[in-house]
Design a protein that fits this description.
44% helix; two-stranded antiparallel ribbon; 3-stranded parallel beta sheet; globular
Length: 128
């Protein structure tokens, strides 16, 4: 489980805080790695700018690490939003992986698989 939240803590769901979820996952035999410092959605100045963030070297290094992990393990990316269409998990990370011809499948709030699709908005902004 790669935690890609910029801030891995929640005041609304304390069980979702980094230390608690890491402990629970490890107890269940699931490896946990925090990658929010590399794959979080915020730029260095605290904004959501996915085009700028995607070009950041630490972000690119994070993507490389995910790809390395994926050669050995099944990798799940954890973000704060339950609905993937509202998350940088889809609008940033999945878009980067799709461009690298990596299959990305979102797990929905209703526990269904949803294959990621290219985000037209992301593509249009990149070409500008």
């Amino acid at each position: 489980m790669a935690d890609i939240r910029s801030y891995p803590y929640s005041s609304h769901a304390e069980w979702f805080n980094r230390d608690r979820i890491e402990h629970s996952l490890r107890k269940a035999g699931i490896e946990y790695v925090f990658m929010g410092n590399r794959l979080g959605g915020l730029t260095d100045d605290g904004r959501f700018d996915y085009i700028k963030r995607e070009k950041d070297q630490s972000y690119q290094d994070g993507i490389k690490h995910v790809l390395e992990y994926a050669q050995q393990f099944n990798v799940a990316l954890l973000a704060s939003e339950g609905e993937y269409m509202n998350s940088h998990r889809h609008h940033l990370v999945a878009q980067t992986l799709l461009k690298l011809n990596v299959e990305v499948v979102h797990i929905t709030e209703s526990d269904q698989d949803a294959p990621a699709q290219a985000d037209l908005f992301h593509s249009v902004l990149e070409s500008e």
